Amino acid sequence: MVLKGKVILNEQECAGNYDFSIQQKYITGGFQNIFGDEAPLIIFTAICLIMETYPHNADYFQTFKYLCPDETETAFWIIHSRDYYTVLLPEEY
User: Fold this and answer.
1) Are 68 and 74 in contact (CB under 8 A)?
2) Which residue, 74, 25, 78, is CA-closest to 49?
3) Can you give the C-alpha Rg of the chain in angstroms?
4) Which of 9, 26, 53, 55 is the Cys-Cys partner for 86 at CB 3.0 to 4.6 Å?
5) Residues of the chain above pLDDT 70, percent
6) Which of 69, 72, 67, 92 is nearest to 10 (CA)?
7) Where in the chain are the domains?
8) How much is the mean pLDDT over the chain?
9) Please, are residues 62 and 76 in contact by the beta-carbon 8 Å criterion?
10) Measured between alpha carbons, how far apart are the two ends of the chain, in Å?
11) Which residue, 2, 82, 73, 71, is CA-closest to 42?
């Protein structure tokens, strides 16, 4: 499967020491409903972007934009909680 849009990692506000290579994750219903079948690939891409951009200094709070082919944007967040991370829409916080 290939993403229809583009995942963009926003600049983090401060440095941290969080490891996003952990396997345990939670996905909110809102995120799943918005992105449907693309959700797993969007999450994978987002995690790869975090690990490439901030390999040793990732903050627990990462924000993203997903640019759809029709130029609309959807914001989403990934919040690291030490043992797991949660993928959600801002309005679900």
Assistant:
1) yes
2) 78
3) 12
4) 26
5) 100
6) 67
7) 6-75
8) 96
9) no
10) 29
11) 2
